[in-house]
Structures are given as C-alpha cells and as structure tokens.
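Dear colleagues,

I hope this message finds you well. In preparation for our joint manuscript, I am sending the COPS4 isoform 1 (Pongo abelii) sequence together with its predicted structure, so that both groups work from identical material. I would be grateful if you could confirm receipt.
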Amino acid sequence: MAAAVRQDLAQLMNSSGSHKDLAGKYRQILEKAIQLSGAEQLEALKAFVEAMVNENVSLVISRQLLTDFCTHLPNLPDSTAKEIYHFTLEKIQPRVISFEEQVASIRQHLASIYEKEEDWRNAAQVLVGIPLETGQKQYNVDYKLETYLKIARLYLEDDDPVQAEAYINRASLLQNESTNEQLQIHYKVCYARVLDYRRKFIEAAQRYNELSYKTIVHESERLEALKHALHCTILASAGQQRSRMLATLFKDERCQQLAAYGILEKMYLDRIIRGNQLQEFAAMLMPHQKATRLMRVKRMSSASWTELLLNTICWSASKLYNKFTFDQNWSSLWDTCS
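The corresponding structure tokens are as follows:
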C-alpha cells in the first residue's frame, strides 16, 4: 500500500489542474496514508512529505497540505510520530524559510512527545529551533512568551538553571507587552524557580510570597508557593532582607499549616533549633537546595566550619541566657546543633 501511495503522488505531481482540485487529491492521498498501519504507514507518510517539499509542487498547496499533515500526527503512536517529525524536519530544512509556520507546529508537537518521555533537554532543544526572532514569520507576543517560558521550564527540569535563566531573561523582555494574565502567572512562577535554582534564595522567597496572594492561582498552589517562600527564606543568608521576610511569614497565619513552621518560629524568635528539626527540614528540601549546603561545607576547611558552628552556638545561646557557662552547657549545645 505504501508503494501505491508513492505511485499516486508521482502521477499527481505530473498532472495539471486548479490549486483547489490538486489540493483535494493530495488530501485524499494523505487520508489513505494515515489509514495504513505499522511500517506501511511510516513509508507512506515519508513519501507524502517528500512530495510536499518538492519544488514542483506549488507552495500554496504544499503549505496547506503540510498544515493538514501536522494535525494528523498527534493522533499517531508517539514512536511513529517522532520518527516522522524528525524525517520531516530533515527534508524541509533546505526550504525551511518557506515553511516556518509548519516547522513551528512540528517542533511544538515533537517537544510534547519528549516531554511525556521526560527527556527534558531534547524537548527544550527542539523548541529552541523555532526562529522566534530571526525568521520571516512574525509571531505574536503571547506565542513567543509562552514558548520562552516553556523552554526555561524544561531546562529547569533538566537541572540546567543557566540555560533556564537565559530564556527567562528573553521572556522578561516580552512579559510587559502581554495582557494574558495566565502567562503573567507562568512567568512569575518560572522566574521564582530560576532564582531558587540559582540559589538567590531571598529574591526567590519574595517572588514566591507574591504568588501566594494571587487569587487567579488555585488555593493549593498558593499554599505551595508560600511553602517555597518559607524554605527559601530559611536557606537565605542572614541580613535585613531575610529578617523582614521572616517577620512577614511569621505574621502570615497560613504558614502555621506548613511543616517548616517550627523552624520559622524559632528563627523569628531567636530560639535554638534542635538537630532533629534540622534533619526534618532537610528532608523537605529539593536536591539543588541540599547541594548548596553541601558545596559550602566542602569548600570550608575543618577549622572554619568548626568556628562557624561555635559562633552559631554562642550567638543562639546569648539570645536565651543572660548568664552562660560554656563548660556546663557545651555538651548539650553540641548535641542540639549537630
């Protein structure tokens, strides 16, 4: 049957007629190819692609038929669709300027398949291939913003915050031009996550906290944003900004629902945090947040780490006791802070 499809295409390419009549006949061949299965379907669809990118076929027809072709592929098995997508991108490359809209559609669908497979990097790289700024086609602001945000999110899933930040920066140039409130929220979420992954914890906390008040966001997601704000505040370096965020979160009654509230309370009230509480908090952190602390410890010498620990012990203890006898309390404090 694939051979029959190829033969029909060859005959049609050498025939004459109006664009409407020819497009109708090509569409019938496409339907025939789609109805096949397995290897026959694959070969028939490849033959159809080769015909559509042939310069003997009018661009008016080939663009229209490739658009129809793209609407059928998401209904095929992912393995078949993925092979066809890659084949089409390869064959279309010499004339890519003539088919920018169709290429963008193919890349969006192909990225969705990679995303389902949790192949985040390939999904991102496929979308990067869409010429959003350099092509002849003028994409609207929302399409470009949504695509940049998706690329940034995929790079974050692949634990590549550097590339994610590059694309969130591109999105930053567009987000003020968009009136789509949902995209604005997606931008804020993605930007907060980039700051989080880049270990800019206090900036991330501020943006997570802002998201926790957005009524357009579902209540459960607002609480999730608040949780991230709390975690990032705890991880942030000491200073006035962190002190302000601690005060803001401590006064927010919603934080009392969060598992890390005990840590927040003790930090705000200048109380000692016990070792078991720190272990419980560590279990709540994401891998990149844990890695931050490990890398800092590895960069320290044994002496400097001990000095930091002793300073922390003495600072915490001074908040609790007017009179402090080091010899009497050393053992219990070490157990508390270790």
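For the figure legend, we might mention the following. Residues 223-285 form one domain. The CA atoms of residues 12 and 116 lie 38 Å apart.

With kind regards,
E.M.
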